[in-house]
Amino acid sequence: MGKLTLFLIPLAFLLSCAPAPKQVKSLSAPCPKTTYMVVRYCPTKFAYSDRIQHLSRIRITSLETGKSLTISVRLNRNVKGLCIPKKYRRFMSRRSSFKAKVEVLRCGENGVRKCPQFIRGYASWYGPKFHGRKTASGARFNMHDYIAAHRTLPLGTILLVKNLENGRTVKVKVVDRGPYVRGRHLDLSYAAAKRLGMLGKGVIPFVAKVIRCGS
Question: Which CATH architecture has domain 30-106?
Fold first, then answer.
């Protein structure tokens, strides 16, 4: 028996005893396909809910009248259940609130229900020029908050971003869309970029772990 054979036998034994590699699973955004909730009226031009992904397209069917309404809904943690503009009161129900079946026709603004466990690429940053402007989530951009922009991840997604050049990390929340420059995959706020030590360089290679998918 040769030396190579003697080496391979214990190696094969060790490999057979090694634990199987863990399967990478994706995370899901909060988008129930069908749910039942109490619908109220609100003095706004938009519909709001604390349980459905921001900018989802939904169909509301009144369990009282059987009438249906298709509308986009925005995320608002202060709204319990669902509220729709008062202008629909005559059509859906004249009561101040009613029970309804709610179907999610499109999850979020782009139909994304799943997030990968990790994303990689090149990150840039944005700051003073955009400070105070409205983000895709509807909130004002504050360059001193730990936030970020991504093209497709559900708004509200939490990322742990690592600068692959120096090992620094920062936790950010996706509240905006972008970057739209070719070859860039994540736009970070001034505060997040400062924490990562990338202000001077502008663009860095990164890896990010998805801590939470969507709001």
Answer: Beta Barrel (2.40)
* The CATH number of the domain covering residues in 116-212: 2.40.40.10
Cis peptide leading into residue 179 (ω within 30°): yes
Assign residue 64 a region: left if phi > 0, alpha if psi is -120 to 50, beta otherwise? alpha
Residue 13 has phi, psi (to 5 degrees) of: -65, -45
Per-residue pLDDT of the chain (215 residues; tens, 9 = 90+): 554 444 444 444 433 444 443 444 568 877 778 999 999 999 999 999 988 888 899 999 999 899 999 999 988 878 888 999 999 998 898 889 999 999 999 988 888 888 999 999 999 999 999 999 988 888 899 999 999 999 999 988 999 999 999 999 999 999 999 999 999 999 999 999 999 999 999 999 999 999 999 87
Same fold, 30-106 and 116-212: yes
- Kind of pairing, strands 118-126 and 186-189? parallel
On the 0-12 / 13-18 / 19+ scale of CB atoms within 10 A, 162 is: buried
Structural contact between residues 153 and 112, judged by C-beta atoms closer than 8 angstroms = yes
pTM of the model: 0.70
- CA distances (Å), 25 to each of 28, 98, 131, 173, 215, in order? 10, 38, 36, 21, 19
Phi, psi values for residue 97, rounded to 5°: -155, 160
